[in-house]
Amino acid sequence: MNNDLAIQAIDLTRYYDKLLAVDHISFEVRSGEVFGFLGPNGAGKTTTVRMLNSLLAPSGGKALIFGHDICRDPYAAKRQFGLVPEESSVYTELSTWDNLMFTARLYRVPAGERQRRIEELLELFGLEAKRKEKAFALSKGMRQRLSLAMALIHRPRLLFLDEPVLGLDVQSAQLIKDRIRELNDQGTTIFLTTHQIEMADQLCNRVAIIHQGQIAAIESPERLKWAIEGRRSVEVSFDGNGALGPYAGLARVAGVDQTVRQRGKLKLYTSDPPTVLSGVMAYLQAQSLPVTAINTTGPSLEEVYLTITGRALGPLRGKHPGTPCKGCPVRGQCESEKEEQVAQTSERKGGLLRSSCEHH
Questions:
Q1: What 3-state class would DSSP assign to 206?
Q2: Superfamily of domain 229-298
Q3: How far is residue 330's CA from residue 221's CA, in Å, rounded to a whole number?
Q4: Which tens digit of pLDDT belongs to each residue from 113-147?
């Protein structure tokens, strides 16, 4: 048993009749990390998580939770994790206290420990004043706090979170984010499934992006951003009232690959920000155009996600002749397009980002 790994997915596969939903994926989640799992609807994300939770049997491959096979030894595996689904799993006719007590009994928390743990969790999630209130009377944010407290009653080593702050008020969302950080600081491994890419960027040590049933990328947010460094940009902010007018000419500045208009802002994508910045300044001065601010920015995790899943806002990776794999962070997939295609069968199982080098 490898105690350094919270999750091992090995050649994990799932068919629905003839539809291949999850295509022989392999990845690992290290003990003690916050691991983000991202993917568009229909990519296989939910199916993968349900297999990891033992809610769905895999068609092939296997999954281990701290070394316990989720199919062969499900009880031992389930003892290792807590689960907070997107839709709150609280029992609406029970009070806050009774929900926690029922869950404590379900997980066989020793009788002498139950009350103390419940008191701790009520305080941790700001639910003390709601202890006697029926769950149906709680706000969505309060129910989500209660759902998270219930998942922690048996002190799991691993916590699965599915969209934990979706649709919540700002106060509840911030409290849950703070508790996620605190739990992780105390050693709990977090598996976070979310569409909120900013949250994944803030909280996760690594993220995996699943697309069309395969792991398209798995790396730290910063390294994923670096992998598409060519999507850096120069942002020019100006009075947002009215049309672009003479500012539209910034699209013709040397080194600009593509422009995107935002509210009161023009975003100029480029692989050479210094050249574009000089050209922008020269153009603005020549046209006597006022601006509010000029900034250079790197790619966001959202842009990485959109690029990998094929819906990029700015320029997509092109197929250009040039030096292959210069500074490529994602290991030799990229000697040529043909070689990449041949290598897909074996390398897709390693969870590698398809190359962002100049050859692709």
A1: strand
A2: YebC, transcriptional regulation domain (3.30.70.980)
A3: 13
A4: 999 999 999 999 999 999 999 999 999 999 999 99
